[in-house]
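Quick start: what a row looks like.
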Amino acid sequence: MSYHDDFNNNVGRCVAIRCHDGTTHYGYIDHCDRDNVYLRPMEGGGNDGPGFGSYFFFGAALIAVGLASIAAFSFSPFFFW
């Protein structure tokens, strides 16, 4: 299994992604292509950085996180911070 398969099989789930540079991104998986996973940010923020880029579709921001930059991730129904 690859990150690509993991994220595509879990679209809509809540995830925390830690990158090699130490930033952590929290959100719901919107979709994944061969280079990036796109997250819908959780209410209240909690993200350490902007990710690879921010994209706006129909007024909702998506955070693109490069698959190569991911050090670890975890699925959860909710996160507290």
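That is the whole record. The chain has one domain: 3-75. The two ends are 30 Å apart (CA to CA).
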